[in-house]
């Protein structure tokens, strides 16, 4: 049996080889015309592979054979190779082949590759004589308009198509789609059913029918409809995508996997097939494999929106907010109506702590999807971060009463997907999948959190009780319950809930973290440490546990070396954990261990050469190690990988300034501004360079650009005022500062305006401004602090002491106010200075500045032993602050320890900028030794 089977396979193989050889041998002597005839025969037999060979043979002999170009374009189109189809059809048209045949297919190819606007721009001038060709072209124009959100224009296009050719099926499908966008889903479905009576195999009609059935929450029927699409168009990757989406929604992951395999067989390694595999990997919790897979897709198709969207989702999970923002910018340029991308963009800006940009990105969502519970929650977070708590509460209230399981909500999601007019329609389905999954609890969690944000603990507990009935054996349930009990100040109940979560799942890290927080509240830090130690001992490969333990240690004031030791241990246990490695690099950069930071960053870079966050960290490590040229090289390579981000170029400019290559820095900044014209960070740096080159007019031009870009913001006017001030035009600087103050009535803005008026000689106006501000804002300390510091600069110590005492009445436990008052009292010779400084130290025992002040006062009082002790402690906590080492060196000289003083001065000089005032003082003291 085995022998006969092998023989049979050999026969099949040999037959196929013989057929191929016959084709190739025939090509040697046949004419292009005979090859075209042969290709047509193969097409009639549905053998596209053989037809393709013959068409390419014909074109090899005669590259200008227009009909061969057209037929090859048609074959490419039928096989789903729309880019290849576009290329061949365009050449056929250029060679003079019939526009009636080429233009309709070329228009559809452009549509399929997301290039709808090119249809009218490049093909409208073509003379079409056949009614069906004209109808097809007008229909494609209609779909292009839909893709741009121009529904009325699309409807006119479809109507014109039907005038050109009565009953043209694709135009009728377009009209049904417009009807669906108008939210008449049942009517649209009836229209599609009527179309299918006349054209029962029309894939486009089956596709819209499947979309409508999905929106109407009839998934079983939708699956059958998508199968009908695939039967008519075996290479229709979008139909596969939607079908697989529905299977995943039904939690039929194994069936979905088989469909992915069928999709690969039908379309080859199409980017969408690779993407869907990555999505299934995410569904199965294989996030690392998914991220690797989606990066593979993006290497093949860097502009492929589905992969970019999944990549941004995973990047948000990895807290790589900058890269997510870059991806999402590209997505929204291609698909401005894609709701999920806009939601993720808002989340990315929140992660980047850019609340103003988050609020700007939120507005289209509020307009187009303002009833979506996810949007409402995002809006609440955005307005909270912007400090607008009234609006924040409003959005959280609306979110809390929304029902995420409501059929209308599901319908709205479906309609949003249809209205977007994008080829990657299934993403809206994928977005809704968790909400539609009976086993999903995200909606419950969202509701609980919304109530908690409004301090509605009773309602939150009611939602928890509903979740407890739904998921009585899920640790997340009891983690949420513990959170609500915490908010209700029932700490004992919260502990019991978190313990229950751990009982259900001993390796449930969120419950461990919450119990540790309770331990902190109860001042049981040792107990919290033991929790993490015990958890890590049982779960040594949990990278997130090391990171959370490190965060706990840093938050509770553990020495940096202890936090470093923990992260080192974590890296040893989980050597491939990029988050641990990156956290360790950041800590080492902060602590000044540049050599070790650079080594780890280089290792991370070798592991993840395409990860832009890793490459950025490598650049920062190189800067910390003083390897400026290497850092410049790193950012030079990073910039092309982030073509829509000004950040690498701004980093390059900083390095070029540091190496005194100001011309190159200016070029880098101008490139950054070209990418994103309102990049204030780049504009501010460019202004500084222009001022340094005495090009003040150009600098003011940049400030004026900012004013136009950010009409309601103060920054452009602040910069103009600062430029004029730097030019010595103190009076001319006043109007811009006045404009800035109109737009930003903040304490910082009033300080700037006060300073400008004082510099312009308007002392009375400045004094009135300050008095009016203090009267209107009696609890503000910013302006008061500035006035006190100004008094210090002018050596008006009595006035400064009075001002600090007034501020301490408002903030009696502010250590920095106490510190400054102590320093002033020391200058006044007031014996209470040391006592005040000791109060500051009690409130901020690890502040190097506060310890430095106390040390100096003790030295002045004659208690040199204690004074030196405090100054040494200050230096140990702030080793990179030259002023602290200078004060310690002075103290050491005073007690006769000149060698110790020289050592401190040398260390200080390595950190003090050349030609700075502190460097001059260090040089002077060292020379005296």
From TrEMBL:
Family matches, as InterPro entries: PEP-CTERM_TPR_PrsT, TPR-like_helical_dom_sf, TPR_rpt, Ycf3
Record Pfam families: TPR_16, TPR_19
Record's signal peptide: 1-39
Transmembrane regions listed in the UniProt entry: none
Cited Gene3D superfamilies: Tetratricopeptide repeat domain
Mapped TPR repeat ranges: 66-99, 373-406, 475-508, 848-881
Keyword match Signal: yes
Top-level lineage group: Bacteria
GO BP, sorted A to Z: receptor-mediated virion attachment to host cell
Coiled-coil residues: none
GO cellular-component term (any): cell outer membrane
NCBIfam families xref list: PEP_TPR_lipo (TIGR02917)
Protein name: PEP-CTERM system TPR-repeat protein PrsT
Gene encoding the protein: prsT
